[in-house]
Design a protein that fits this description.
- By secondary structure, the chain is an alpha/beta fold.
- Among the domains are: 74 residues, no CATH class; 205 residues, P-loop containing nucleotide triphosphate hydrolases (Rossmann fold), CATH 3.40.50.300.
- Helix content is 38%, strand content 24%.
- The strands form 4 sheets. Strands 6-7-8-3-9-10 form a 6-stranded mixed sheet, sandwiched between helices. A 6-stranded mixed sheet has the order 16-17-18-13-19-20, with helices on both faces. Strands 2-1-4-5 form a 4-stranded antiparallel sheet, covered by helices on one side.
- Helix 4 packs parallel to helix 7, helix 7 packs parallel to helix 8 and helix 17 packs parallel to helix 18.
Amino acid sequence: MPNLIETIDPQVIVSLEDVSVALPKGGDRAFGIQGLNLKLRRNEVVCVVGESGSGKSLTARAITGLLPDSLRASGRILLDGESLLEAGERRLRDLRGAEIGMVFQEPMTALNPLMRVGKQIEEVLLIHTQLDTRARREKLEEILLEVHLNDIERVLSSYPHELSGGQRQRVMIAMALILHPGVLLADEPTTALDVTTQAQVLRLISELQRKHAMAILFITHDFGVVAEIADRVVVMRDGRVVESGLAEDVLQNPKHDYTRALLAAVPKLTTGRSALQGERPIKISTTQLTKIYHQSGGWWRRKDRKNSSGVKATDIQVRRGETLGIVGESGSGKSTLARLIVNLLEADAGAVHLDGKAVDFQHAVPSKAFRKKVQIVFQDPFGSLNPRLRVVDIIAAGPIVHGVPRSQALSRARELLELVGLESQAADRYPHQFSGGQRQRIAVARAIALEPEVLVADEPLSALDVSVQAQVLRLLEDLKQRLGLTMIFITHDLRVASQVCDTVAVMRLGEVVEYASAQKVFTQPDHPYTQQLFQSIPGRIWSGAAPELLAA
């Protein structure tokens, strides 16, 4: 039988009382969560905000009983008066999905890649209900329509990789809400999404919350998201709550220095940087650069002759010392263009020019010379760093390939770690021993180890919390000035682009639809798609942007 404890406030559905989670010995602190008190009320959205490692996700996992085996929660966690910490695993399985829904940050890793989406959603009904096949089908159709996935047959028969990022996140929301639980825990569900998809998901969550009067615990590091959906805010640091209150009060009158620091780190939408002074030669450019992705109907169907273009006949020009920002939604062709420029993808047509000369990627010598001058920083540093190598060896690998003596390359690698803000003692550690922001710094150090003339940064900030974003932005700007870099900066965040870019190219469906100075794009956007991107920025009114930007 559930252990029932009387609740005082009938509106409180989840209560955390003096909850702590001890960490294994040898870590940077003793507790992942310490002395946490938190209440979730029906028909309320509570946003938990803080940097990576602050204890946000541990809080959600403690509520659902999904902590790693090595961790245990103490204190009291009550769901409608029932003690979750005293409930057995069988009881917790009954509650997950039925009473508590969970939406994870990255649906691609949370969904089974080998199972069709329809079967994965239906699995919730098979576990928790006695519905027959027809009733389950009706439920599936009902929830997909509710999360605005209208192409029901296609979605149900698709595998996760066949859906877009926004569609996968909607599938996760559908799985979490198909049984209409009273509580929804959303762990950074919009962090890696572009602004328009993020805006759609936030509107969807708000709509469903009002419809079902749910209590929502929404974990985020983006105060723009907080401004859009939160009723109350809880700010966490190193496992402790440092400030909490009504969203309006925390956003407008933060009391704690840490909260003020987080708010100050949020990138503000500005009118763009002043144009570069004087005539500057073109450093890198593309002419009619094209990549076509051939779509196949599968083994037993004829190949679909309607091919999709990743990048369509694109011309860009970046002057020496300039930062060109390439912005757009997921699937717009931004990353494809970056990979074409550095020859990680082979173009179907067109050319890349460096210092006015077309690069011959077909022959090893010019290709190798080009790679030394043009380097790339990837979006996911953990996926791009070899987990089996020490970071000093990772950074030194490029120079060694290009003929630098090993001892000299290793010595330079240690100097570069200090240049990007890490201690030289970190050189002998492995990538998994660093935080996300530190790994991104290592990726930057690797890129500049060859002393490149052009740096291509492909969404280098998208998975980082706001304070680390601010640090990496300052680092890139500092390195650009010190080393005289020319930069191509790819992002879906217009707030970031407005701060670092001199010129902006807006991409949609593989095409550049607007290309102008940053000041022109941010104050007088011409294309309806660019205007739509501005309208989708979370918290754009709260952020204190200039009136001309709010009217864009």
